[in-house]
């Protein structure tokens, strides 16, 4: 299968509310705050891993379109809700775009989408540099009271680190169009995935209002 063209989605992710994307340790991370955001180990700057954005786009699209896997005993496809789509069928938009889950020989291969890590924008960096030194951090640490549900008493607060509202990160997604692909459909699916994430949240604690984002981007074709 030949690569026909690459469609690139370039722009920014604007944080409408504070955002908390955790590292591999998740909420169990030990450090200055009870819960730390993921940072580039070289620069100490927070970023949003491409895999986090891609995973959220995928799970939101699967909530809408469903996910399936092949059941060997029943010898048919069954719907699943506890894992990503692994059907690997050529006509499955999810498997075509994101790759078939645990299905290395999938007919839908190769994976068409590539989501790069979302780095801090220069604009956000400049904003932080203008702050007085005592506030000149990329992050805010927020104490949140935990209420003991048995007694109703407030326990000692947890300290949650997050990237403040108003921060912005780069958005850089590449979509590979192979010969025979429905280019418009795949492009629309990427746009829809981003729109669904904007209607939901990115990172953790979405139900507490974290992670509301807006995507501003342009779509361009690149010859190969
Ligand atoms: Zn599938």
Summarize the structure in words:
- By secondary structure, the chain is α+β, with helices and mostly antiparallel strands.
- The protein has four helices and eight strands, in the order βαββαβαβββαβ.
- The chain has a four-stranded antiparallel β-sheet. Strands 2-3 form a two-stranded antiparallel ribbon.
- The longest helix is centred in the first third of the chain and has 16 residues.
- The protein has one domain: 2-Layer Sandwich (Alpha-Beta Plaits).
- Helix content is about 20%, strand content about 30%.
- The radius of gyration is 20 Å and the shape is flat.
- It binds zinc ion.
- Zinc ion (ZN) binds next to helix 2.
Quick tags:
Alpha-Beta Plaits; four-stranded antiparallel beta sheet; binds zinc ion; 224 residues; alpha+beta; 4 helices
Short description:
The chain has 224 residues and is of the alpha+beta class.
Secondary structure: elements and pairs:
Layout (H helix, E strand, L loop, with lengths): L2 E13 L34 H16 L1 E5 L4 E5 L12 H6 L14 E3 L6 H8 L10 E8 L6 E9 L5 E11 L4 H16 L14 E11 L1
Antiparallel strand pairs: 1-7, 1-8, 2-3, 4-7, 5-6
Helix pairs in contact: 1-4
The structure holds zinc ion (ZN).
The site of zinc ion (ZN) has 8 residues, from helix 2.
């Amino acid at each position: 299968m030949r690569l026909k063209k690459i469609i690139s989605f370039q722009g920014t992710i604007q944080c409408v509310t504070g955002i908390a994307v955790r590292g591999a340790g998740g909420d169990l991370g030990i450090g200055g705050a009870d819960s730390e955001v993921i940072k580039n180990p070289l620069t100490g700057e927070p970023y949003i891993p491409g895999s986090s954005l891609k995973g959220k786009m995928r799970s939101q699209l699967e909530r809408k379109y469903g996910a399936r896997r092949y059941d060997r005993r029943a010898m048919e496809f069954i719907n699943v809700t506890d894992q990503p789509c692994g059907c690997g069928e050529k006509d499955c938009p999810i498997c075509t775009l994101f790759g078939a889950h645990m299905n290395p020989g999938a007919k839908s291969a190769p994976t068409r989408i590539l989501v790069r890590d979302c780095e801090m924008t220069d604009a956000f960096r400049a904003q932080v540099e203008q702050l007085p030194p005592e506030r000149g951090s990329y992050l805010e640490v927020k104490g949140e009271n935990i209420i003991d549900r048995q007694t109703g008493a407030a326990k000692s607060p947890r300290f949650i680190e997050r990237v403040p509202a108003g921060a912005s990160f780069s958005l850089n997604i590449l979509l590979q169009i192979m010969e025979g692909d429905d280019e418009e459909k795949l492009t629309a699916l990427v746009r829809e995935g981003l729109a669904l994430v904007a209607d939901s949240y990115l990172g953790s604690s979405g139900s507490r209002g974290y992670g509301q984002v807006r995507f501003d981007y342009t779509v361009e074709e690149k010859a190969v």
